[in-house]
Amino acid sequence: MLLAPHQALANGVKIPQVGLGVFRNPPGDTTFNAVTAALNIGYRHIDTAKIYGNEADVGRAIQENDIPREEIFVTTKLWNDDQGYDSTLIGFEKSLRDLGLEYLDLYLLHWPVSGERLESWRALETLYKAGRVRAIGVSNFMAHHLEELLDHCKIQPVINQIELSPYNYHYRQSTIDFCNEHQIVIEAYSPLTKGIKLNDPKLVAIAEKYERTTAQILIRWAVQHNMVVIPKSTNPERIRQNMTIWDFEIEQADMILLEDLNEDLVTGWDPTNVE
Fold it and tell me: Which of 145, 195, 202, 263 has a C-alpha 20 to 30 A away from that of 12?
């Protein structure tokens, strides 16, 4: 069985360093089967969100597996339409019901919604203090959003989930530096560039050197930067390959070569200019 090591968050909660993302997985059996395959392979970290529309299928896969609930780390995210103090609390309860769980391991603000994010964060603090969630964090927050939040919050976010790969590493450097300075763990989504760069000749050359897939190289790169990483796949063999990264290490010279691939690539939302 393939098990990821755990990484400690600032509040002492431990998160498996590699998880399964289910972004854009359609509701129903596609998500259920992917999560089931991942759990059977050894994954113990599943990342979903209200906007994905598949929380119920993630929850069903967890409930129908015999792995103890406390061994599975479950993350979901508050969508923009539910931001604001009271609506955040309502949105949380809806996600929890859809997942069929009694608590969450990690709850994130999905986006830095202007005029709402501070009140939404206050609601997350309420949920955390009440023991409804073991850790709270944010997603798609850049350094200036985090700076504002830290100026007002009583409890700091322990994770910032952002799109990150060698192809936008330098583009995100100020946010990475801010997170490292304030003990906020970076969680990389779309680490495989949604497949756009998996056949890049420079990346292929590095993968061939290590006799690995290009996806494995990208995931291992994130791990060696002490990031949590959540690659997405619905293919059981690729799900297995994405966890088979613990028996090799990328040399420092090749880590630098990978970072030199930076081209400010953003494959999804870009919150850089969100006020």
Answer: 145
pLDDT tens digit sequence for 157-208: 999 999 999 999 999 999 999 999 999 999 999 999 999 999 999 999 999 9
Domain boundaries, position 162: 6-259
Q: What is the CATH number of the domain that holds 96?
A: 3.20.20.100
Asked if residue 269 belongs to a domain, the reply is no
> Is 52 annotated as catalytic?
yes
Is residue 78 a part of any domain in this protein?
yes
> CA 230 to CA 225: how far, in whole Å?
14
Within a domain: 267: no
Number of domains in the chain: 1
- The model carries a pTM of 0.97
Q: Is residue 90 within a helix (H) or strand (E), and if so which, with residue range? A: helix 85-99
SS (H, E, C) 234-257: CCHHHHHHHHCCCCCCCCHHHHHH
Dihedral of CA atoms 39, 35, 29, 242 in degrees, nearest 10, equals -110
Contact 4, 18 (CB under 8 A): yes
Which of 52, 107, 128, 167 is labelled catalytic?
Answer: 52
Q: What is the torsion angle, in degrees rounded to the nearest 10, for the CA atoms of residue 253, residue 258, residue 260 and residue 265?
A: -170
Please give the angle made by the CA atoms of 64, 69 and 75, to the nearest 5 degrees: 100
